[in-house]
Amino acid sequence: MIKKYIKKCEMYSMIISILMIVLSLFLIFKPIKSIETFVLLFSVIMLVNGVIGVVTYFTIESDERLFSFDLLSGITNIIAGVLVFIYRSSLVEVFPIMLGIYVIVSNLLKMQISINLSNVPESNWVLLVIMSILNMIIGILLITNPFESIITITTLCGIFLLVSEVISLVEEIYVLIKIKKFEKTIGM
Questions:
Q1: How do residues 54-109 score in pLDDT, each as one tens digit?
Q2: N or C: which end of the chain has fewer CB within 10 A?
Q3: pLDDT at position 188
Q4: Are 27 and 154 in contact (CB under 8 A)?
Q5: Contacts of 140 (CB under 8 A, 6+ apart)
Q6: Alpha carbon separation from 180 to 16, 25, 55, 167 (Å, rounded)
Q7: Arithmetic mean of pLDDT over the chain
Q8: Residue 136 has pLDDT above 70, yes or no
Q9: For residue 170, how many other CB atoms are within 10 A of its CB?
Q10: Angle at 131 between CA 128 and CA 136, to 5 degrees
Q11: Do 77 and 47 contact (CB within 8 A), yes or no?
């Protein structure tokens, strides 16, 4: 019973791993197309979420509507989804710059916390400051070379995903082999 369940789970995991390997290859060899697809899917998700919000607003009881933000939220999501869809190519270009600004600001805050730790014994605050500076350099690179940076990041994500999923696939095959050997040993 349990072996059957484990086999089923491993087979399902293998299918997911194979699909993720295909996705990783797409990220590696078509990074720009991957980003464009992501932005397109994001706009569709916002549109669907908006429609659900509007429909929800009109299907709930009138006393519940007094406290509901579903209509405003739904309309906002629909407008945002349409704008993201219309300006998706511009968003692909602006995304690395926005990401770079976020990385710089968040690491400035982390650097401040690291410096605040300078009076705490064994806090390794200098290491934390160095890591914040390195991350800020990455943020600056994202801002100054947005196109190259986003291609590199997407490709690296694809490579990491590929390695991870190949390892998962090997593990899943290994488990299935061990289950088969176990079944032969006990005569199933």
A1: 999 999 888 887 878 889 999 999 999 999 899 988 888 887 888 889 999 999 99
A2: N
A3: 61
A4: yes
A5: 100, 104
A6: 21, 31, 51, 20
A7: 88
A8: yes
A9: 11
A10: 125
A11: yes
Cα–Cα distance measured from residue 19 to residue 25, given in angstroms and rounded to the nearest whole number:
10
CA separation for the pair 156, 160 (Å, rounded): 6
Query: How far, in Å, are 14, 31, 56, 182 from residue 179 at the CA level?
Result: 15, 39, 48, 5
Number of DSSP helices (H) and strands (E) in the chain, helices first: 7, 0
Encoded tokens for 1: 């019973």
Q: Measuring CA to CA, which residue among 104, 100, 94 is closest to residue 35? A: 94
Q: How far apart are CA 58 and CA 77, in angstroms?
A: 16
Q: pTM of the entire structure?
A: 0.65
Tell me if 141 sits within 8 A of 14, measured CB to CB. Answer: no
Measured between alpha carbons, how far is 65 from 58 in angstroms, rounded to an integer?
8
| CA atoms of 62 and 68, how far apart (whole Å) | 10
pLDDT in tens, 157-171: 999 999 999 999 999
Question: Distance from first CA to last CA of the chain, Å, rounded?
Answer: 12
Question: Hunting for tokens 């739904």 — which residue is that?
Answer: 74
